[in-house]
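Researcher: For the record, we're logging two predictions in this thread. I'll number them. Prediction 1 follows.
Model: Prediction 1, sequence and structure:
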Amino acid sequence: MTLSFLPSLLLSLVVFFLLHTTTNGAKKSYVVYMGAQSHLFDASLQELDSVTNSHLDLLGSFVGSTVKAKDAIIYSYTRHINGFAAMLDEKEAAEIAKDPKVISVFPNLPRKLHTTRSWEFLGLTKNGQIPDSSAWKVGRLGAWPESRSFQDTGLGPVPAKWRGICQPGHNDGVRCNRKLIGVRYFNKGYAADLGTPLNESLNSARDLEGHGTHTLSTAGGNFVPHTSVLNIGNGTASGGSPRARVAAYKVCWPETEHGGCYDADIMAAC
């Protein structure tokens, strides 16, 4: 009789496990938005750390502990907005959304870059690909200090009030100078959605598409005459701001079927 009861017991345990898994669901990345920050640009490191700790305390109260919260959190937004990005299941996300300190909780969604047919018209791309003969490849793309738009000739030391960083990256990452004074990349939200470790080469702020470099050099680059298509494709033809200092923040990555610019990364760069 005991033996005949055993299969039924095992079946019940299996059904319970399946129901429990279905209810909680797999962990996905979410952004928890709590409004604007009360402090301004002059916040101390202690104040910023205090904001992060408050995020860990809140998250920990829903996932079981601050230790688990540290494992789940992707970003802590401490400067302009108040909030964080974290790996949560649907139930946890729904419960956090009910907290009176939280304004909204939303999935970390991908966005697609939009452009026109200009790249094809200029001969920089062909059928959506960059051929070896393209000016983008010949001209060495990217936010490099070697690019004429980002040369620092004649500029003095970086202002002491600058609090940005030149984030170390992959071997072919971007190096800062006295004009290109800040470089960062944000790909944790992208990695969280992919669910697999990123290739090391993606840990870099290098602009491999050209659009970001063109925009940055136009807004604050050194003046470089439009002498050829190479200059236009390389982003070196700028609006002429030789005394300006610039920083490059990268948030867009090789596109998945959904997109390559994720909300969590975009908010981290703001």
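Researcher: Logged. Prediction 2.
Model: Prediction 2, sequence and structure:
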Amino acid sequence: MAYTYRYSRPLVHSYRILHKLHAVSSCGQNRFSAFFSTEFVGDTPVLVRDFIHSALYHPDHGYFSQSPRSVGVLDRGINFHKLQGRKAYMSHLENIYKQNDVSWFTPVELFKPWYAHGIAEAILRTTNLSFPLKIYEIGGGSGTCAKGIMDYIMLNAPTRVYNNMSYTSVEISSSLAKKQLETVGEVSSHLSKFKVECRDAADRSGWGDAEQQPCWVIMLEVLDNLPHDLIYSENQVSPWMEVWVEKQQDSGKLCELYKAMQDPLIKRCLDVLNVDKDFKHQGIREASFPSKMWSKIFPKAKRSWLPTGCLKLLETLHGALPKMSMIASDFSYLPDVKVPGERAPLVSTKKDGSSSDHSSYLDAKGDADIFFPTDFWLLERIDHYSSGWLKSRIESFDRSSKKGKKRRIITLDTSVFMEEFGLPTKTKTKDGYNPLLEDFINTKFYLSVPTHNTK
């Protein structure tokens, strides 16, 4: 298995959840319960997405809010040309992790400035430079990407493009927002063009009036940490139910509660997943008669994770930035996931330099990263839905209707993206090994731009 920048180690654990019809609780099953901060779940049950949001982003107890040290920052870029090959690179990387008390280093950090330069080149090749260049970055981490992009534009774009550009980072973590200003401020001329807005990008009220000019949105390793919802079915033919998290009053343990489907955001996400059911196998289909008979003989519970946080964010972005172009990069799959369910997350805690993976998302106590694989087929559908094109098909009786403006979208492996837009020779070792092209096999780039075409 190729190296990925968040380690995952096998952790053997299994469990099953007993259930009842309608709204039922799993609190009696101790194997699925976990002690947790009462700051996350009070006396009222919460949807799984709200639980995950608190576990990651609670201002006092959330994983990303406690300290910026979860995201690593290198003092200087790695000189790959001085390393002999893969073994030397892995040894160098191991030393870096030992010297820094951090959970992980993102690709934009490991391959700075070249990773950010590749993104900047993709923007310059694609954007309409007759308009002032406006860039928004969601979840800018330590600011390394912003600085790298602004450096590249300053050195490679026409002077007027750099002088008139604006770069806005929308960052939910106040500690990371402060770090971004420090990083970008290393080049004094950048500061007049850069600002950080410390807020939740998915909250439409924070964006103000819609921006009618073309702009770019960058999201690097953002989709994987967006809250997801969980739906559950007791067997192959039973209806899907929403999963909520509640706390036992006597013990304080957390457990699942199943309710009939009613949440509007979950329903919209299922609509996106199910439209044109015969188009892809990912759709949640109605069971056939043989399947119903088989399910009675061999009933099997089902769990499916829905990217409702992604849907909410893209609905917000398309509403606030209707002419946006977008570049996103993230995991296309995650190895050794122990949490059950389709599109399930990896829940990982790092302590004293070693990582441990949890078999339940309820084990997250503000000290664990919760990150999901990105279903890029589903992401494209969510993008089309949020921009209005696919939504018109879902709401129309005529399924062949294609009202609205379909976006131009392409998904590329990280290696393909960097070979096209980057300078991969800069990340090559002496013997020709290139970690940028060879190691990140479970990550992809997603590019989406508006178009006036309706076909």
